[in-house]
Amino acid sequence: MFGIRFETPEPPPTPADVAGWFTSPPGLYLHIPFCRTICPFCPYNKVRYEPDLAARYVTGLHTEIAHHVSTMRGPFPSLYVGGGTPTMCLDELGGLIADLEIDGERAIEVLPAHMNADGASRLAQLGFNYVSIGVQSFHGEVLHHLGRPGSPAQNRAAVEMALGRFDCVDVDLIFDVAYQSPQILLDDLALCFEYGVDQVSTYPLMRFGYTPFGKARHDRRREHELLAEAQSLATERGYERRSVWTFNRLGSGSYTSITRPYYLGMGAGAATFAGRVFSVNHFGLTQYCEAATRGDLPVARVAHLPRAAAAAYRAFWQAYTGALPVVPDDRLLNHPLSVALVGLARATGLAHKDGESIVLSRSGYDRYHDLERWVTYHLIEPLWTEMMLEHDTENAA
Fold this sequence. Notes:
The chain contains twelve helices and 17 strands. The protein is α/β, with parallel strands linked by helices.
């Protein structure tokens, strides 16, 4: 897919190499892989929290950050901290981000249990102004189905605590049409709209084969219908569909991760996209920390993309936002392949011109929903499955 073929770099790239991949300062991503409990549906790189392991990891992450800061000066346009459960390590985060000059939003994923008075205060003190609360649902049966810690009451309390304290409050919801009534997602959405949160992210459950949930068929038609109902509800409540799976209060900011044009990932399992180069760090914490001890960057796989493949990949994630600029200043969005894909979408009724942008139609959103799932299962899952084997090697040792 996209002509992306990952290879093991020998030797690993140097900080100067990585800096040379970028033509402008990238957004920064920082990965904290620790969790108290492991949610069975979660496909992301994570491990159970152990104090000694966390201490070694933070030391390695300090080293990786120092490498990049030495060759790539800020200011950087954004910082995004994900996991795992990054709010487990707020004490360590202060030191990790102290040398990062950020002139845009500082965003972080938050476990609802950690969005209490103390947690909210500490996040603000660290400079985080965009928060995404991993609610998943306000219904107990859905939380039980997902194996998610916490309760509906705790989730509501977390949202109430965040409102008014941060520039952008996002609430993550997960729906599974194979299990739950469609009304559950609509009720969860309605509650978010009543609260007046800035953004609601409504993700369909992704079933990665290496998770306890395993593989399963998806009912595309029911998912399309449910998202269409969600869009109608959002419009009624003064919200707009600002991407395939997100709804935003009019005039609010957008909490984004995958749609950032170019980004530098730091931490175990973090990815970097520089346009013509895509790289992934070691997933295993032993391999990650050993690389730091040697003084190497912890890069495990690198793909050098032909320009057409890079343009297709860049256009794909830009399309997730539901709009592409008519006269983009991005060299990859100006590529003939990107222009041709936009023309095809317009010719087939998947998109139309609206002012200075090309925007997806209702059928365009449906087709992108299906395509994004296909890309997830045919590009992301195979790569992550391979990289997750590093954990098996560590456990065997």
